[in-house]
Amino acid sequence: MPAVIEVRNLGLSYDDYVVMRGLNFSVRKGDIFIVMGGSGCGKSTLLKSLIGLKEPAKGEVLYGGRDFWKQDEAEQQKIMRSFGVLYQGGALWSSLTLGENVALPLELYSKLNPEQIREVARLKLALVGLAGYADFYPSELSGGMRKRAGLARAIALDPEIIFFDEPSAGLDPPSARMLDDLIIQLRDTLGATIVVVTHELASIFAVGNNSVFLDSEAKTMVAAGNPRDLLNNSKDPRVIEFLTRGERQGVAR
Question: How far apart are CA 73 and CA 51, in angstroms?
């Protein structure tokens, strides 16, 4: 499959502090691509560069062969409208109902009338298992339901690429499994490409078919490929240690 995202010789830093350097990988159309590694390795910083929130120190992030960071602001905004992003906390507006939260991007970026927007918002909520919850407020939901509501908003504009920032963080195992199943379902039903930033083994093995492994000490990527292939074939002790935590708890799922 063709590459949807290409990262070439990417370097990430905060002023003089180097976070990552020499990142090279591709995300193919239809991938569920995992960005993995231990705490503090730069996963979230990489995500910010991919979605247009932090300019890299060097290198390229290409969408459709075009370097995002060399486009003018109007073109960057156009590319970003092909993204959906589920932030770690869900990032819902607490003063708005779920329906109103999902409707926001539709009101800003679509030409639908108000009734059509309400209908699409209800449809997106139904897709994530929240049919009938359009009039509920975020405070009335569990953590897992808030994550799913955030996902409904992320897919409101039928994005080509959906980014997830630690989607299982703070969830109990049943809710995390439900979200993993939903990620696979959205890839299959919407034809979207998925990028997931996570350190959770269960999710990595449940959903990922491609990945990059970041190492905080080396300050670069030390492995790439299908997580199960890395588990079975990697000779790098850092990769083996990361992927065999908890007696390979994620593989059983």
Answer: 13
| Spatial CB neighbours of 17, under 8 Å, sequence gap ≥ 6 | none
The alpha helices in 160-236, defined as continuous H runs, are: 173-190, 201-207, 227-233
Tokens encoding 214 = 């970041």
CB 210 within 8 A of CB 193: no
In order of 35, 38, 89, 96, 158, the CA distances from 93 in angstroms are: 27, 30, 11, 6, 21
Contact partners, residue 207, CB within 8 Å, separation at least 6:
32, 34, 180, 183, 184, 194, 196
Tell me the β-bridge partners of 197. 35, 165
Six-digit token string for 134: 């359009």
What pLDDT digit, counting tens, does each position of 49-84 carry? 999 999 999 999 999 999 999 999 999 999 999 999
Task: Domains for the chain: give ranges and CATH numbers.
Answer: 1-82+198-253 (3.40.50.300)
Q: How far apart (Å, rounded) are the C-alpha atoms in residues 31 and 146?
A: 25
CA distance 159 to 80: 9
Q: Which phi and psi angles does 237 have, rounded to 5°?
A: -60, -30
Q: Is the full-model pTM beyond 0.85?
A: yes
